Amino acid sequence: MAFFGLFGNDRTMADTTYSDRESASEKASRKRREAHHRNARAADRQSQAWEDTERRRQDRWGRCGR
């Protein structure tokens, strides 16, 4: 009945057995940060592409836009 030996020692197990592992909340926050940075980079690339396209369009037709 080793199962009954687990009651009350969860903090001890967390300090020893799982000390080298990333916690679930730390993992979730890391993934959230990574996703935010990934989305920010994608939005930046998209806005830069729009700016380049707009600049080419204006240079082709002149600044007045016809």
TrEMBL record:
Looking at the record's lineage, which domain of life comes first? Bacteria
Query: Where are the stretches annotated Disordered?
Result: 1-66
Comp. bias (Basic residues): 29-40
Task: Cite the record's Basic and acidic residues compositional bias ranges.
Answer: 18-28, 52-66
This chain's protein is named Uncharacterized protein
